[in-house]
Design a protein that fits this description.
nine-stranded mixed β-sheet, 5 helices, alpha+beta
């Protein structure tokens, strides 16, 4: 049912209109220039729909998304008075906002680069993009972190003063449920600003942003709780009489080796960042606790062997 709902949503947004070829309408090469440059910036209306967020990858600093974008503008030079047909022409044959995704990693376009032109000169361009987008985030609170994921678009070869991007909150949307299992994704918001890639000309920038809140239950039950059990297992040496040094060392060494093996096992799910996250601090703290239990077992056993049983038992009592 969810798949049917998504397909229905896509169909409602990316409406297929019956069109006629542009055989009888000649496209002048001059139409590649911006319409009405003396009349101020060209107004471009935009609609965007987030079809899916499939994955957020901490290791690669990317996320997988599927989005649909529709752009609409007016070009009086393409008007055909008296005609009622809708024609299609290649996008490159006429002026267009040249909106490009700046933070794409591996993104695929699903539709051909063509535009629909109504008889009054209204131009509509629709495209669907899916693939990997880069995202840079500070995850010091991992695995209890949240971040803002964004799709960053710019108007390539078009100055910010030449284009005015128009959109309403009602035209920026998303499906009710995404396929990503371990994140809660918020609503989509859009904002425009300027972008100077070479420090000279300012391009128009559009950010589509969503707040992502990580669901930490997996890490609590699969990482944190087992680590706590290993640490508590190492504390069993405090309840064994210091005279039994062999038993103490066996339990302490077993806890230490178990912790080391467990750290190797969970290394693949830890993000490789150059700073300590909350989970890194917890794992390091657990390692220190287990090592201290091993050191305490050696010390109390040595004291007991040298005739200081009372002092060794006092140390065990303090450790407990």
């Amino acid at each position: 049912m969810r798949t049917i709902s998504i397909v229905a949503t896509i169909i409602s947004i990316l409406t297929v209109v019956s069109v006629t070829p542009a055989d009888s309408f000649e496209i002048d090469p001059g139409m590649r220039s911006r319409p009405g440059p003396k009349d101020g910036p060209t107004e471009v209306s935009m609609e965007c729909f987030i079809i899916d967020i499939a994955n957020i990858k901490d290791h690669d600093q990317t996320f997988d998304a599927d989005i649909s974008i529709r752009l609409m503008w007016q070009d009086p030079r393409l008007a055909r008075p008296g005609s009622s047909d809708v024609i299609t022409v290649p996008l490159a044959d006429i002026w267009n906002p040249r909106l490009r995704i700046a933070n794409q990693r591996e993104v695929k376009e699903h539709f051909p680069d063509i535009v629909r032109i109504d008889a009054d000169g209204s131009v509509t361009f629709e495209q669907r993009y899916s693939g990997e987008f880069t995202t840079i985030a500070d995850i010091r609170d991992f695995p209890f972190d949240e971040r803002t994921i964004r799709i960053f678009l710019v108007t390539a070869d078009q100055s910010a003063k030449d284009i005015e991007l128009i959109f309403a909150d009602s035209n920026i949307g998303r499906v009710e449920t995404f396929s990503i299992p371990n994140w809660t994704i918020g609503d989509v918001t859009a904002k425009t600003s300027t972008f100077s890639p070479f420090g000279v000309e300012q391009l128009l920038r559009l950010d589509l942003e969503m707040t992502a809140d990580r669901k930490s239950n997996y890490y609590i039950w699969s990482v944190i709780v087992p680590l706590l059990m290993i640490v508590m297992m190492s504390w069993s040496v405090f309840f064994v009489k210091p005279q039994h040094l062999g038993a103490q060392l066996t339990m302490a060494a077993t806890s230490m080796l178990t912790l080391i093996a467990y750290r190797f096992a969970i290394s693949s799910i830890l993000p490789p960042v150059p700073y300590m996250t909350r989970l890194d601090i917890f794992i390091t703290g657990s390692t220190i606790f287990v090592f201290l239990a091993l050191a305490e077992a050696v010390m109390t056993g040595t004291l007991a062997d040298s005739g200081h049983e009372h002092l060794a038992e006092s140390m065990d009592s303090v450790a407990r």
